[in-house]
Amino acid sequence: MKRILIIEDDDVIRMGLNYYLKQESFDTLESSNARDALSILKENTEIILCLLDVNLPDQNGFSLFQEIRTFSKVPIIFLTADDIETSIVMGLDMGADDYITKPFKARELMSRIRNVLRRYEASSGDSVIEYGGITLDTRQAKVFKGGKDVMLTALEYKIILNFFLNPNIVFTREKVLSNIWDVNEEYVNDNTLTVYIKRIREKIEDDPSNPKIIQTVRGIGYQLGVRDD
Fold this sequence. Notes:
alpha/beta
């Protein structure tokens, strides 16, 4: 059963989402507030994804997200009318799987949903991936170096997971962003990705100035480095 929970207080938008999803053969559950959404999630473990509006009548969507994460790892896509970059990055850094601003087209939403579900399916195989002295545990969503937990933000983890799941692929900068957010948004620029790659290298590389794990392919983008084992 492909069941999605829609958490949205706008009746028109919620009805539209319900219609779109059913046309794509998804089953749906609906909630117009945070309180009911929590109850539905706790009672329906078969839910495979949540569409979560940031502005709910009884609770901020970001704080609801944090509550959900105390008992569930269900994929979550934020819905909001706010396209401010700081809000978007904050939501993704908290661990959201994607973020789409209203108004949006049904085709774009479906593309994002499928992309998120593909990522979850890809990471549900072998739970431990080792590469270049770094261990990635997909079940715990954690990265270890020398047996020690590497503290990554959720967005940093998504970036490194993308490389570890595709060790033989050279990614353009645009493709890296596409695999994280599904489509290239206007708020994402070269500086944004450069900062995240720099942060990751500082945490996992022995010498961040001479990276061996996430390497730059000049004029193209990035790829996972050569195994050292």
